[in-house]
Specification:
2 copies of one chain form a homodimer.
Chain A (H helix, E strand, L loop, with lengths): L7 H14 L5 H11 L6 H12 L4 H25 L4 E2 L2 E2 L1 H5 L1 H18 L5 H21 L7 H26 L4 H28 L2 H4 L5 H4 L5 H9 L2 H12 L5 H13 L2 H19 L7 H15 L3
Antiparallel strand pairs in A: 1-2
Helix pairs in contact in A: 1-4, 2-6, 3-4, 3-8, 3-16, 4-6, 4-7, 4-8, 7-8, 8-9, 9-15, 9-16, 12-13, 12-15, 13-14, 15-16
Amino acid sequence: MDVMQKFDEERRLVSLEIQKTLIGKPERLYVAARHLCLAGGKMVRPVLCILSCRAVGGRTEQAVNTGAAIELMHTFTLIHDDIMDNDDMRRGKPSVHKLYGLPTAILAGDLLYSKAFELCDPKTVHILSKATSEICEGQDLDMSFEERTDVSEADYMEMIAKKTAVLLKAATESGAVIGGASEKQAKALAFYGLNLGLAFQMQDDILGLTADEEKLGKPVGSDIVEGKKSLIAIRSIETLPAAEKKELLKILRKKGNSESEIKRAVNLFHESGAIEYCKKKAGEYVKNAKDSLEALPKTEARDDMYRIADYVIKREL
Amino acid sequence: MDVMQKFDEERRLVSLEIQKTLIGKPERLYVAARHLCLAGGKMVRPVLCILSCRAVGGRTEQAVNTGAAIELMHTFTLIHDDIMDNDDMRRGKPSVHKLYGLPTAILAGDLLYSKAFELCDPKTVHILSKATSEICEGQDLDMSFEERTDVSEADYMEMIAKKTAVLLKAATESGAVIGGASEKQAKALAFYGLNLGLAFQMQDDILGLTADEEKLGKPVGSDIVEGKKSLIAIRSIETLPAAEKKELLKILRKKGNSESEIKRAVNLFHESGAIEYCKKKAGEYVKNAKDSLEALPKTEARDDMYRIADYVIKREL
């Protein structure tokens, strides 16, 4: 069984809180704000927040509001990212700006962000606001990489640390703080979240190239079309022989690639060994995450977090 | 002397805090985020936050960070509003999205908002997040009014309460809480901020039609071009004779009016008595604001707030 299926009760509690929070007027704005929140996300972040709270002796109920707040923050970044990246699809549905127009989509994102700070535990405000500042920095890096072909592995790691991993780190660290963790425990859980987040984004990049289009909920290879610099692309550019490197760069520089060009790029990614390289790296970060759990007492929550770390790189969507 | 000139020291402290907060990388993002913050705003909100803190016995230093946070929030809403309303000018300079493009402008706004929550006093998080949620609702109402010709005075008051007045209310209420106000004092200062904010927005609407273009920093009558429903427009539609009403509605429904059409609309606003009506209303809200100060001990800060209330409807920009 997929480990994430175990947390239906946690997801139900978080969903309830989100639904309660997102009732309001003007109706049009709240409908747009609810759209993506209720589009069937896996709620990895709230689950991690709640498990972190329990892993240090806290109760589920203490962390539900903050978990919901973090899911709202995550959704807010998705809505704004889709505008910036011109992505028309998200989780198999039209993105918010496609459905409700640009102004309402900007505002729906802003509203989710405000509501998150209304909802979260006061003790977590500084963790969460620091994380969202870094997410903005990470998104800016991600966009600026599109114009560049000299992005290094270190640049990429900084970008995904900020764009993706800090919010998972914020989720585990917040849960720890809410649950009354010792400083050592809070650090261990923050480290777990960060490393898990790095692996999570790498696996996302891999799935974006190799997964089933229907499961993915968006076109395979959309990162290639947008000129996104994943570790896979970076590693391929670094290691391919001159002729293939030139061919790949041409595809990555071009916007609006044909299907056969996308296929060719994916083949070059495989040939270069970059996809395997990226899988190996993701596995190392998962190991880091699991190792850090040793600082915690042996509980069912800790075991679940161990299994979630494995799940992150084994999942198919 | 303009009363606002008295607060150069408060503005200097707040500016310093904003500048310290807005140093970071990627450079491009932080440059965009700083642009409007340093474009010479009057910093009415931080000044009110600091004065409210002092009016209940607190010290300036206690409220500087939260004052700076509120200015960042205000600037965040301006950047996003300019995108939504397609406004190319702000404070006499090109708006952020004109200078740096849409994606960076969205992100610069998001960053300011995050930084605000990093900066503010933890005791004020709930006041501030509630206010920004209402600002989103107010902006949505404002946009939806553009398509409507049946907007009532009550609709308008709800819209400006949310879009403008709640942040001034949040500024005075936050200052009060930080300064250790009694419940009665905090309520009085919140009431002052709300009423001042209503008068402030009404005066803004008046100045947008009657002020000197250079002082205004944007074209006179831009509200007419955008079909914005100010109280002046609403009152004119309600009171003008049928022929003039029809003429006015035609101008308000059209986007991209000529200069002579804008002049004609402004003349109809004057003829209908709506500008005078709006001035009178603004004066009433200023009186409410001043009356509420009676609940506070007699201090220099309270006297200053009394004078700021008068200034709000006497100012020329």
